[in-house]
Amino acid sequence: MKYLHTMVRVSDLETSLHFYCKLLGLEEQGRHNNEKGRFTLVFLGVPGDTSAQVELTHNWDEKGYGGGRNFGHLAYRVTNIYAACQVLMDGGVIINRPPRDGHMAFVRSPDGISIELLQDGGSLAPAEPWASMPNTGVW
Description:
Elements: E1 2-9, H1 13-23, E2 27-34, E3 39-45, E4 53-59, E5 71-78, H2 81-90, E6 95-97, E7 104-108, E8 114-119
Parallel strand pairs: 1-4, 5-8
Antiparallel strand pairs: 1-5, 2-3, 3-4, 6-7, 7-8
């Protein structure tokens, strides 16, 4: 398993970039604009180190976050997403967003923190029971 990033939702992307980059000293290491989904993802990290990043998620139509909804999730890359989810499920963890695509899953910690699991390398072929498993809640 490899730690990837922590996601934080931001209401004003430029103000947030000023804080994280100009004041805190992080650098932009990647950006993805999604016109259809109406959001921008910006990945920031310590200069010269891409091993652990902060993902700023800017939902274009959001008017502000309340009640702690600005914190998103922790992300980990795993060698086999199906095996990782099976261990969690066998331990009593609900798979909120099953890895139907062989690539991504979401679970929650005992304290309700979202954890994203991403398959290392390319997606695995869809497999049961995961391929037909429905989402079971907010990820």
